[in-house]
Amino acid sequence: MDKPLSVNRFRYHFSIARLVFWTCIFLGLILLFFFHSPHSSSSSSTSDSAPRRILADPDWESRVIKSGKPRSRAGGLRVLVTGAAGFVGTHVCATLRRRGDGVVGLDNFNAYYDPALKQARRSLLERADVFVVKGDINNPTLLSKLFELVQFTHVMHLAAQAGVRYAMKNPSSYVHSNIAGFVNLLEVCKSANPQPAIVWASSSSVYGLNTKVPFSEKDRTDKPSSLYAATKKAGEEIAHTYNHIYGLSITGLRFFTVYGPWGRPDMAYFFFTKDILKGKPITIFEGPDHFSVARDFTYIDDIVKGCLGALDTAKKSTGSGGVKKGPAQLRVFNLGNTSPVPVSKLVNILEKLLKVKAKKIVLPMPANGDVLFTHANISLAQRELGYKPTTDLQTGLKKFVRWYLNFYTRTGKTSNV
Ligand SMILES: NC(=O)c1ccc[n+]([C@@H]2O[C@H](COP(=O)([O-])OP(=O)(O)OC[C@H]3O[C@@H](n4cnc5c(N)ncnc54)[C@H](O)[C@@H]3O)[C@@H](O)[C@H]2O)c1
């Protein structure tokens, strides 16, 4: 009689133990899920992958509101700057804030080039009283929240996957940022009430294989030579559509090879500097019949003046809440320097400034999407934006080299391109 009872008791204890065991496993799995889920990522309280948590954070909200408020300047703008931790974005944000405008930055801090450089630019902007939100332009919840917190008068859209050659390695990143991201941003802008005016960065690369120089806004732009160029050209067509259907005021700026302090490590002037200093050989490409590759190098301060000129002359959008009320402004401008310089001359200037002789390898230009030369006609921007570049390559590179040596000596790092 005792035996079955003890067997039953054993069975009872065994099933309780089993129940406790599986409950622990289950709870463990739930905890594991939460700790590893991107929503609980500790990367940043402003991560785009944690919108719900950020969007309910009063401290985050008050930083956005404070940053978006114009300081002292009557009629100051309230500008959302996308790509704010990027090269051009950092300079534009700092200049707008300095003159008293409200500025909120947005950037996803992707690793296309050294994110530490982007973080350093963010710290610079923090000291200038500009808050840079970490997030992706493809995140509609985040964008709508920003528009709810600040009634932006303008959007300066600089976020993009830049670089011509990288498009052969990672084409989808160009579609993600330059097409899907741009459409998402325009969707949020068109639904905003009031709608902001938009100024955005297109590129000289839309002139593609054109041979007529200097490049004018009236020239055809239907022969892009890289996927990067094709996405910028697509952006210009998408801008036309949103202007036409929703009354958004949109200005596209075709930048020509921008350079200067806090620049982009993937650009030739930057990695030539790094390699010359390290004693590494640099490759200079040339066209057929030893044609010298040339660029219309444009100094960052001149580009910033062009961006501000475009923001200040942008007319208001005419729609509201997604409905067009009348025709709206649609513009495209070249922002270049109008004096193309052969890449070999760029190297000569760098050699003198760095006091180091470069080890040069000259090779025929591969078919990687690069074009042989760029040269801007800027008369339209001169007339309508008051744009007047004033920095020649020698002067601009001197400022870049001074920044480079100071930045990489101070941080004790070398640039990771
Ligand atoms: N620098 C030039 O010579 C040049 C020439 C022509 C056009 N442009 C255009 O000007 C703009 C600014 O260029 P830059 O030189 O400052 O480049 P950059 O790469 O330094 O800046 C772009 C910033 O956008 C961010 N970004 C990219 N995708 C994003 C996304 N989906 N969401 C949020 N942020 C994102 C990046 O993290 C980066 O910080 C870009 O649109 C670029 O295509 C630049």
CATH fold-level name of the domain at 160-258 and 299-336 and 375-390: Rossmann fold
Low-confidence stretches: 1-8, 24-50
Helices, by number, come to 13
Instruction: Specify the CATH class of the domain at 160-258 and 299-336 and 375-390.
Output: Alpha Beta
CATH architecture of the domain at 160-258 and 299-336 and 375-390: 3-Layer(aba) Sandwich
Q: Indicate the overall shape.
A: globular
Mean pLDDT: 89
- What small molecules does the structure contain? nicotinamide-adenine-dinucleotide
Share of β-strand residues: 5-15%
Give, in order, the helices and strands. HHHEHEHEHEHEHEEHEEEHEEHEHH
Task: Give the neighbour order of strands across the main sheet.
Answer: 3-2-1-4-5-6-11
Helix percentage range: 40-55%
Helices and strands: which structural class? alpha/beta
C-alpha Rg, in Å?
Answer: 26 Å
How would you characterize the largest beta sheet? 7 strands, parallel
CATH superfamily heading of the domain at 160-258 and 299-336 and 375-390: NAD(P)-binding Rossmann-like Domain
Spatial separation of the terminal alpha carbons: 81 Å
Number of strands: 13
